Amino acid sequence: MYQRVGAIAYKKDLTNTRALCEVLGNPHHKFKSVHVGGTNGKGSSSHMLAAILQSAGYKTGLYTSPHLKSFTERIRINGKEIAEAYVVSWVNRMQPVLERVKPSFFETTVAMAFDYFATEQVDVAVIEVGLGGRLDSTNVISPVVSLITNIGFDHMDMLGDTLDKIAFEKAGIIKQNTPAVIGKHHGETDEVFKHKAAQQQAPVFFAEDEYYAEGPVNCLSLYKNKNVLFTGINLSLKGAYQKKNIPGVMKTIDVLREQGFQISDEAIIQGLEKTTELTGLKGRWQTISEKPLVICDTAHNEDGIREVVQLIAQQPFSRLFIVLGMVADKQHDKILQLLPRQAHYIFCEANIPRALPAEQLAQKASMHGLTGEVVKNVNEALAHARSLAHIDDFIFIGGSTFVVAELNEL
């Protein structure tokens, strides 16, 4: 399971997924789908798209990864998680096939999601790429539109060590004659997407050519072709970085409308303002408690942490405490050099084999002028931060999806 052990669990091949889907009668051909990839923002964008489609009256499937608290978070219809009993019965029914094919955890989960969506007859499903794109298990689908949010450095051991190599893997979700939306321009990756789209005779759109968002996330103005489209939107997903995700979401909605989806402006606004309520997304600049203010975020790579650091800097506080844990297979130095030196750090580790031991993290951090103490258990680390903090202080918890996942209060 990649979530626990990392690269050793990643299978660069679609054979197993295709074999499972074949046994199930190719369920992914029985519903329309939207495919969402990218380095950062693909989870938030997937949830926003699902919330908008739900608000427009469509029975909407949503497949995302990883989960934070329960496996069932990965597979939802209209925001409701797949029932545990369904998971158990599906695995029991498929056990002989699973033992023969020997798929990975992720391959099995993808097949389960597709079968569930087909059985429940969803109108459309939003499918988030797990890792990369070209060889990701989800890439057996034939979507009506593909969205690639952005390209940054993450999972370089598997996707390549340059942005154009990573973009090549992400561009693998661009399909024949199928519109592709690219969230952001980048000098090193634009040509990769244009070349892939030309090969596939696929229309390609760069969302930020048309859309941009301004203002605080609780009173957002959205512009299309420099004209005001909406004002006063109170985004459900907090964090200023969501403004970078919205252009891609909006352009994807444009493409869906052109394909006959009936999506009103009211449905768009409701989807953006009630994303967490409609789909249950957690861990994106989420407030855990107040006095002192405690916020967590699942950002875990260089670009994501850079956004989070900007948000921390915008918070009013007397003192800053950061509860920090990371996994072993990240570029620690590039992330640590971004973090604020004035904070008091409490280094912890998630209870997974991939976790970087807290003592090692503390040692690495000290080389970047970050000081504090080690409290291994995530919840004990947060409790310790609270014991040190006053009501006008600020506590941030992050560095890894899996640190956030272990928070009892999430």
CATH topology descriptor of the largest domain: UDP-N-acetylmuramoyl-L-alanine:D-glutamate ligase
- Give the C-alpha Rg: 21 Å
**CATH class descriptor of the largest domain:** Alpha Beta
CATH architecture of the largest domain: 3-Layer(aba) Sandwich
Low-pLDDT parts are: none
Query: What is the beta-strand fraction?
Result: 15-25%
Number of helices: 16
Number of strands: 17
Distance N terminus to C terminus?
23 Å
Number of domains: 2
The percent of residues in helical segments reads 25-40%
Shape: globular
Major beta sheet, strand line-up = 4-3-2-5-1-6-7-8
Structural class: alpha/beta
The residue-averaged pLDDT reads: 94
The CATH homologous superfamily of the largest domain is called Mur-like, catalytic domain
Biggest β-sheet: count, sense, barrel?
8 strands, mixed
How are the elements arranged and paired?
Elements: H1 2-5, H2 15-23, E1 32-37, H3 42-55, E2 60-63, E3 75-77, E4 80-81, H4 84-101, H5 105-119, E5 124-128, E6 145-148, H6 156-159, H7 163-170, E7 180-182, H8 190-199, E8 204-206, E9 211-214, E10 220-224, E11 227-233, H9 242-258, H10 265-273, H11 275-279, E12 286-289, E13 293-296, H12 302-314, E14 320-324, H13 332-336, E15 344-347, H14 358-366, E16 372-374, H15 378-388, E17 394-398, H16 401-405
Parallel strand pairs: 1-5, 1-6, 2-5, 6-7, 7-8, 13-17, 14-15, 14-17, 15-16
Antiparallel strand pairs: 2-3, 3-4, 9-10, 10-11, 12-13
